Amino acid sequence: MNANTLRVLACIDGSALTPAVCDYAAWIAHRLQAPLKLLHTIDHHPETALTADLSGNIGVDSRDHLLEALSQIEQQRSKLRLQQGKALLQAAKERVIQAGISDPLTHQRHGSLVEALIELEEDIRVLVVGVRGKSHEKQPDKIGAKLESIIRSMHKPILVVNAEFKAPQRIMIAYDGSYAAEKAVEMVSTSPAFKGLICHLVCAGKDDAVTEQRFEAATHQLAQSGFGELIAQKLSGKPEQVLCDYQDRQAIDLTVMGAFSHTRIHDLLLGSFTAKMLAHTHKPLLLLR
């Protein structure tokens, strides 16, 4: 599919981060000159249904009556969730229009969010999601239950939102010489989303000849890419700690980095680092696969 027809897709669920998800989606859609779609899913959990366990020793007539009553309650709840979702999508649509997006689309569907995203993936240019949904929004030290599955399942850039919107002026590329890091450099250097911004290329946790050579090549590539300013920096220490500290010191607005790998071996090396960054950073992360 032509890149000009790919959409920024924002996943909203009514959690506290929903406004920020809308704002960041509008920002990156504007920077990319890409259309925007807002997605809300209604995920039914059979394991939590009211009718899940009625096989005890109650009378047949009583049980049938209770099942019918509970079925009606479930139907009413489904209608309410549908209405709430439509209202949520309408409010989100109005918000992104106010942010300058013309003709945003809305889409509501039943079922798993992960399954929905897999089906829609070929139409996605950038996916925008909150770091946690309604079920975890009172647990700031945890990432959302579905987020890891989304990251592992998708092959498109994922912008993970974890705070109120602030238009990015300074971005950081977390670099380690890996294939994912090289991909991040390539994407950032060619994407219109980052033109004119201040770019920090930061290498953390690796100090060998090969990484040094690749770091210099990446610095040269980015220097030719139209940034307002390029700052290359090498740091020592635990990557997730020194990168988060650097974010705070340099007032970084957005970090670009590789994410969970598909292979089990790489999961051991990269998966824990990605999870730690997601859990500890207070700035949005653009994750690349």
Number of domains: 2
**3D shape:** elongated
% residues in beta strands: 15-25%
For the biggest sheet, the summary is: 10 strands, mixed
Number of helices: 8
Mean pLDDT comes to 84
Family: Belongs to the universal stress protein A family.
Pfam family, one: Usp
InterPro entries: Universal_stress_UspA, UspA
Organism: Methylococcus geothermalis
Describe the protein:
The protein has 289 residues and is an alpha/beta fold. It folds into two domains: 7-45 and 81-161, 3-Layer(aba) Sandwich (Rossmann fold), CATH 3.40.50.620; 170-261 and 272-284, Rossmann fold. The chain contains eight helices and ten strands. A ten-stranded mixed sheet has the order 3-2-1-4-5-10-9-6-7-8, with helices on both faces. The longest helix has 39 residues, at 60-98. Mean pLDDT is 84; it is low at 46-52 and 262-270.
